[in-house]
Amino acid sequence: WVTFLLQQDYFTDENRVLKKDPQQDYHLEYAMENSTHTILAFSRELHTCDTNDKSITESTVRVIWAYHHKDMGEAGQNYHGSNRGTKSLRLLNPEREEVLSASLPYFDLTNKDVPVPDKDTTYWCQMFKIPIQHEKHHVTKVEPLIQKGHENLVHHILLYQCSSNLNDSVLDYGHECHHPNMPDSFLTCETVIFAWAIGGEGFTYPPHVGLSIGTAADPLFVLMEVHYDNPSYTEGLIDNSGLRLIYTPVLRKYDAGVIEAGLWVSLFHNIPPGMPEFVSEGHCTLECLEEALGAERPAGIQVFAVLLHAHLAGRAIRMRHFHNGEEQKLLAYDDEFDFNFQEFQYLKEERTILP
């Protein structure tokens, strides 16, 4: 027998009724079917000039899928029942090519049996000591280690560099961050050296860049801040999540760093009630950049990746770039921001930011 694979361009109206698009913009490239799988490969222009098609940009795309185990009947498609789902993707964010050896050494920074409170939001802080000392190495990849079943509980993880003048006594306990009773040592941890957010995979540095560890100027003590998101106020949760840092003694040309820009987390940051939309704007000013880069990096820095981060009220984010009063091309944007899918966007070309 022969199975005919029909692949056509359809769209749905506001009543979710499937309709054949009079302008067919999907082109079947390849099809295969065996006893377990049906595989279709197709192509489409990014912008089809068809009002029934969604333009594909660098923003997040929600891919909605549904299927029925029987072929389409004469009366039309069969209802998919529970065979359906959705996945957020960034179709134009290229995959990083892995150039890492599987045998590279690593160390883990993980929480130990943290009792997650039965409240909406908790920031938990734990101090760690970097085990690589006395000789420069480069971290080449950072992977999230999220406890199984806690994928929706651990919302994001920040790693801060702390004062090197601390001693090992600060390693003995974790504490809620931004709390009146938190240890004074936590106040010395101000510089973000890595960030991960929900939905993101591991972050691989470009082949010519690494996060420096092991020298006197590098982080010795680091603070890991984990944001727990527990909107259902679940009791009795114990978490052991954290980060894995993969490193190499083979040094790369450039050291990596992080600049945080945008709005500081503050009780004074309010969105007026009832607004259909509202723009919150933060600035990384000329004066700030000159203070941060002027003496140490007068030729500027190269931006190779951006992590756009917001919480549930966030709908779209733009990272704008100005030079000499002129707006440059956007550094990064996401007009379809998904709270549960936050990953680094690698820039196609590195961008220079001057003091």
UniProtKB/TrEMBL annotation:
This is MOXD1 protein. Residues 1-68 form the DOMON domain. It is found in: Endomembrane system. One of its GO terms (cellular component) is secretory granule membrane. Its cofactor is Cu(2+). It is a single-pass membrane protein. It comes from the Eukaryota. SUPFAM superfamilies: PHM/PNGase F (SSF49742). Keywords: Disulfide bond, Glycoprotein, Membrane, Metal-binding, Monooxygenase, Oxidoreductase, Transmembrane, Transmembrane helix. Coiled coil: none annotated. CDD domains: DOMON_DOH.
